Amino acid sequence: MSSKLVRQNKIKRILSDRIISNQEQILKLLGNEGVTITQATLSRDFADLGVIRTFTNLGVQYTLSSTDYGKEIAKLVGLEILNIAQNESMIVLRTLAGRAQGVAHYID
């Protein structure tokens, strides 16, 4: 098994077993298990695993996404944006007719 796969399995187990509110916590727990990585590597692993930040009554918590809906929605939203323009203070997105609200909701 590759070291990346082993590391990502440990990340999944930690997120399933504990409440993690920041990346420093998981880096420390991984370090306790002999896995030393940078924050950038952890962020890439989070993206690969579909880890999301959720807001609960206890505050921010990192959890494993139960679905891949986010990736599918991102693809659809990308198809609805026709043009992106920017200047020093503003970004303007031009969308398909009637789709601006859906794109805005996704961005928010």
Can you tell me about this structure?
This protein is of the alpha+beta class. It has helices at 3-17, 23-32, 39-49, 69-80, 100-107, and strands at residues 51-56, 59-64, 81-86, 91-95. The chain folds into 2 domains: 3-64, Arc Repressor Mutant, subunit A (Orthogonal Bundle), CATH 1.10.10; 69-107, no CATH class. The protein has 5 helices and 4 strands, in the order H-H-H-E-E-H-E-E-H. A two-stranded antiparallel ribbon has the order 1-2. It has a two-stranded antiparallel sheet with strand order 3-4.
Quick synopsis:
The protein is α+β, with helices and mostly antiparallel strands.
Q: What string gives the helices and strands in order?
A: HHHEEHEEH
Portion of residues in beta strands equals 15-25%
- Secondary structure class reads alpha+beta
**Gross morphology:** elongated
> Helix count, per DSSP?
5
Extended strand count: 4
What is the total number of structural domains? 2
The main β sheet shows up as:
2 strands, antiparallel
Strand arrangement within the widest β-sheet reads 1-2
Secondary structure blueprint with pairings:
Layout: H1 3-17, H2 23-32, H3 39-49, E1 51-56, E2 59-64, H4 69-80, E3 81-86, E4 91-95, H5 100-107
Which descriptors would you attach to this protein?
two-stranded antiparallel ribbon; 108 residues; alpha+beta; Arc Repressor Mutant, subunit A; 2 domains
